[in-house]
Design a protein that fits this description.
The protein is mostly helical and about 240 residues long. The radius of gyration is 22 Å and the shape is globular. The chain has one domain.
Length: about 240
């Protein structure tokens, strides 16, 4: 029996190391990617001249990095689904797909989405949120967790989530105004598939989904904040009393 159990233990250790290594690398790359996007935002609005901004839009300036690092978040759905992380698969799916919809189905799909005032708002909220979130995950894998990182992870969302959602909805609004007068991404009868699809209606359906889903996500984060930060506060208080 001892002989049979030892190979199992030796096999499980490399698998754990591989998974942890993969998760750390993914999170570290995302921290670097979103840090670069944040730098691009600062550079575009604060360091570049008005002449520069007149020649190139924010989307054209940040497009490659946003497409790569935002769409790479689809991996998180798989990580949650296969149990590699403890994230809720349903919440993760909504968070990831809603942002992918903004990038692919709104900004990339319409000329109005590219110039929406919601784009810089969304990108700023996303960048700060993701730098903190992915940094938190990466440090957690290494078992290094400064309290300031935990505090930022479970506090900054209070402002950044509503700001990000506002930016996303503004992008949707600018896109639907274009879709209303154009048949972009829509199928009209008759066609060989004998089916119809309205991109304009899809945009409104997604926007309306924010009404029931965003409060659930927001309250979930508050519950996590109470669980994590509340526990830390009580422990620190208990330590002070003991001393």
């Amino acid at each position: 029996m001892a002989t049979k159990s030892s190979p199992v233990k030796s096999a499980s250790k490399p698998q754990g190391v591989v998974v942890k290594g993969y998760l750390f690398l993914y999170n570290a790359v995302q921290v670097a990617g979103w840090s670069y996007i944040l730098f691009q935002l600062v550079n575009y609005y604060l360091l570049q001249s008005p002449q520069f901004r007149a020649q190139i839009t924010l989307w054209d300036y940040t497009r490659f990095a946003v497409i790569v690092f935002q769409n790479a978040a689809f991996v998180e759905i798989l990580n949650a689904a296969f149990g590699l992380v403890k994230s809720n698969p349903v919440i993760t799916t909504f968070q990831v797909l809603s942002r992918m919809m903004v990038v692919i189905g709104v900004v990339m799909a319409t000329p109005t989405g590219k110039v929406s005032p919601g784009l810089p708002i969304a990108l700023l909220a996303w960048a700060i949120t993701e730098i903190i979130r992915y940094g938190y995950y990466a440090l957690n894998i290494l078992n290094i967790m400064p309290y300031i990182v935990v505090f930022l992870r479970y506090t900054t969302f209070i402002a950044l989530y509503p700001i990000g959602v506002t930016g996303e909805l503004l992008c949707f609004w600018w896109a639907q105004s274009y879709a209303k007068t154009n048949t972009v991404w829509s199928w009209e009868m008759p066609n060989k598939w004998n089916a119809t699809f309205s991109y304009f209606a899809l945009l409104w359906i997604v926007m309306l989904l924010y009404i029931p889903l965003f409060p659930q996500m927001y309250l979930h984060m508050f519950a996590q904040r109470k669980k994590i930060l509340g526990g830390n506060v009580s422990k620190s208080q208990g330590t002070k009393k003991t001393n």
